[in-house]
Specification:
Blueprint lengths: L2 E4 L3 H9 L5 E9 L7 E9 L3 E5 L2 E6 L2 E6 L2 E6 L3 E5 L4 E6 L5 E6 L4 E5 L4 E6 L7 E6 L5 E6 L4 E5 L4 H5 L1 E12 L4 E12 L3 E3 L6 E7 L4 E6 L4 E5 L4 E6 L9 E8 L21 E7 L3 E6 L4 E8 L4 E7 L2 E6 L3 E6 L4 E6 L8 E7 L2 E7 L5 E7 L2 E7 L8 E6 L3 E6 L2 E6 L3
Parallel strand pairs: 7-34, 12-17
Antiparallel strand pairs: 1-2, 2-3, 3-4, 5-6, 6-7, 8-16, 8-37, 9-10, 10-11, 11-12, 13-14, 14-15, 15-18, 16-17, 19-20, 20-21, 21-22, 23-24, 24-25, 25-26, 27-28, 28-29, 29-30, 31-32, 32-33, 33-34, 35-36, 36-37
Pfam families: WD40
Family: Belongs to the WD repeat PAAF1/RPN14 family.
Keywords: Proteasome, Repeat, WD repeat
Length: 430
């Protein structure tokens, strides 16, 4: 597999030539085989002689708005750029989520703060300072779009009213702070005074003894689960704040749980077989898929509180996981993407950059295919299409040079990618 990088302003170069601002200008594009390999660097000249033309040592063409094709000899690659990007210069971004209606972004930071952005204006509209004592490791928006679940490196999970809403303002003691950001569409640096709210969490959940590695909401969110490096997956009930159940691998209870996803079990659990049924909501058909440091992916029946026979065993740690239809999408620490169907126990693998882990995954259905957006080390963001048993992939480009993805999230219509200082928006095709 090759890593393709391109000048982050290459579309601005094309736009300037198209508009006649300059008669010709060039940008660079590079290819390398791995993170530690030397790259081959090429320059492409854009000129306008009645129509925009590309020339250089590689073939380059614009296929449609935001989609390009480049050929290095016989090897051709598709490049896709974001619909929009927003620079965030105030904090080191660690997590992102978008509301179901697409109107707001929730962003977690290394400082432990949470901020919200208006997606239409790309401006920050609310924040919670010191939401966690250490970095925010994940943010999750409830289906109502009114409540946020956050997890932190302080071993806790917390519930918050959505920052920037009247509910959050009523719970806040506000003063004003200045957040700097720039909208890449205009490249204008802007300073905006945004309420930086000191808000008490609606509820704090703390039980696990090591770092929380992920969380999933179940149904409408009355129950949620958190995975931890202590080997546990805790099922919580929001109203009481209680741990309903704890799941561990029977064969290796301390095996670090590195990621988790929510799916469906083979058959609903009968009411009389529910464990602590009075604290379960939308759980009868729900199953947890947990990825472990041992290379195991284990399915658990939530309502029945048992480990099922569905298990995938790989030879490297599981680093990311998602569920899409019948497929469990698994990323490994040695750069493999594995598609596993628990019902048939079939699996298909794609080897990417095996010197880097698959770090973040978002998956959605497109017709009969599964589309997976994933990061695979520095400057590597791919959109993989799986049409069993075949894989194909495109490169998502146009982010700042030397970027590293910190989080990806899709609401089914828009995909948001967060790097340490940038938010990028991509459309989701159905």
């Amino acid at each position: 597999m090759h890593i393709i990088t391109i000048q982050d302003s290459f579309e601005a170069v094309i736009s300037d030539v198209s508009a006649g601002i300059v008669s010709s200008e060039s940008f660079w594009i590079a290819r390398r085989r791995g993170q530690n390999e030397a790259q081959e660097l090429h320059h492409i000249t854009v000129s306008n002689n009645g129509s925009v033309e590309f020339s250089g040592s590689v073939q380059f063409e614009r296929q449609s708005s935001g989609t390009y094709r480049v050929a290095f000899g016989n090897d051709a690659y598709t490049l896709v750029t974001p619909v929009a990007t927003v620079k965030t210069t105030s904090d080191d971004v660690t997590a992102v989520a978008i509301t179901s209606d697409g109107s707001r972004l929730v962003v977690g930071s290394a400082s432990g703060s949470i901020a919200t952005y208006d997606t239409a204006t790309k401006t920050p509209i609310g924040s919670i300072r010191h939401a966690h004592l250490l970095a925010v490791s994940g943010v999750y928006v409830f289906p109502s779009d009114k409540v946020v679940l956050s997890t932190g490196d302080d071993f806790s999970a917390k519930l918050w009213p959505m920052p920037g809403t009247p509910e959050a303002s009523q719970a806040a003691t506000s003063d004003s702070t200045t957040k700097e950001f720039s909208d890449s569409a205009t490249s204008d640096e802007t300073k905006i005074s945004v309420p930086a709210d000191t808000v008490e969490a609606t509820r704090t959940f703390r039980h696990q003894k090591k770092a929380i590695t992920g969380a999933v909401l179940i149904g409408r969110g009355r129950n949620f689960a958190t995975a931890s490096l202590d080997g546990s997956v805790d099922l919580w009930e929001c109203g009481s704040g209680a741990v309903v159940s704890t799941f561990r691998r029977i064969a290796s209870p301390e095996d670090p749980a590195q990621c988790l996803a929510i799916g469906t079990c083979d058959a609903p659990v009968a009411p009389q077989d529910r464990v602590k049924g009075e604290l379960l909501f939308d759980c009868d058909s729900a199953a947890l898929y947990v990825g472990y440091a041992s290379g195991t992916v284990q399915q658990y029946n939530i309502a029945g509180h048992f480990q099922t026979p569905h298990r995938l065993s790989l030879d490297s740690p599981i680093s990311a996981i998602a569920v899409c239809g019948a497929w469990v999408v698994v990323g490994t620490s040695d750069g493999r993407l594995v598609m596993w169907n628990p019902s048939t126990d079939s699996q298909h693998a794609l080897e990417l950059d095996m010197s880097e882990p698959i770090e973040h995954i978002a998956a959605h259905q497109q017709g009969q295919s599964v589309v997976v957006v994933l990061s695979n080390g520095p400057e590597s963001l791919l959109r993989v299409t799986f049409d069993a048993p075949n894989f194909s992939y495109e490169y998502l480009v146009g982010l700042s040079e030397l970027f590293r993805v910190r989080s990806v999230h899709s609401n089914g219509t828009t995909l948001v990618v967060a790097t340490q200082d940038e938010l990028a928006f991509f459309g989701v095709e159905k």
